[in-house]
UniProtKB/TrEMBL annotation:
Keywords: RNA-binding. Residues 10-71 form the RNA-binding S4 domain. PROSITE patterns: S4. GO terms for molecular function: RNA binding. This is RNA-binding S4 domain-containing protein. It comes from Thermovenabulum gondwanense. It comes from the Bacteria.
Amino acid sequence: MDVIIKTDWIKLDSFLKWANIVSTGGQAKILIHEGKVRVNGEVETKRSRKIYPGDEVEVEGIKYTVKGGSE
């Protein structure tokens, strides 16, 4: 599933909200800290990880490809 961001990058917790994967920052924090989020195939436990166009975020088996607004 493609998710378009309108900035050069977005923090992981904000991305999870932007993509409607979670509805609150608290839910994003829990998912990330429990190791349920992968970025480019690697488990990511930092909420502040910068996500760029071209990155792939996976949550509970669903993959989200990050696209830039100009793509």
